Amino acid sequence: MHCWKTINVKKQYGFDRLFMISALFGIAVFMASYIGLAIVYATPLSDQYFLLFILALLAIYPLHKILHFLPLIGCYKSLKLIIRKQMKICPAILLHINEPVPKTRFLLSLAAPFLIMNTAIVTMSTLMPAYGHYFAMLLAYHSGLCLTDIIYLRNLARSPKYALIEETDTGFEILVPPVVS
Q1: What are the sequence ranges of the domains in the chain?
Q2: Which pLDDT tens digit goes with each residue over 14-44?
Q3: Where are the transmembrane segments (predicted)?
Q4: What SS3 state is found at 128?
Q5: Distances in whole angstroms, Cα of residue 81 to Cα of each of 52, 60, 136
Q6: What is the pLDDT of residues 154-176, one digit of tens each?
């Protein structure tokens, strides 16, 4: 195997820039979803269940990480869970993969939280339009969390079909098998 390319979005963009782009992306998603729901549903909004909204907001990040893990269940022996403090107060949960994973499985692992959670949030907002503002905020927050995954997806989608993805200290390495003559 040889390394086709190494991708490290955090080093390429920097934490501050990623945070700003993620926040702007979240605001754009909130505006689009809130305005869309307001146009489609003329239901008056309710502020009931605010505590439930706060609990859902706190649960999004751990659920997001769990959904990253599900497609990698077959590789559970090579996964390592790391919990760090980000900005001195926020816990950051990192999943580190110790051995190469097929590209399709890795892409599925990156896309799973975005597809599953955002679909669930949008579905619930259509079923309960009186709480559309809560769901718009949850969707915006989760979409902002998914921005780094989306950037990685975009970069990895252009890699060779049968590549393996390995996580190292320098980022994600895209490994391709040697060409046999």
Answers
A1: 2-43+53-172
A2: 889 999 999 999 999 999 999 999 999 888 9
A3: 21-43, 49-76, 106-128, 134-153
A4: coil
A5: 28, 18, 30
A6: 988 888 888 888 887 777 888 88
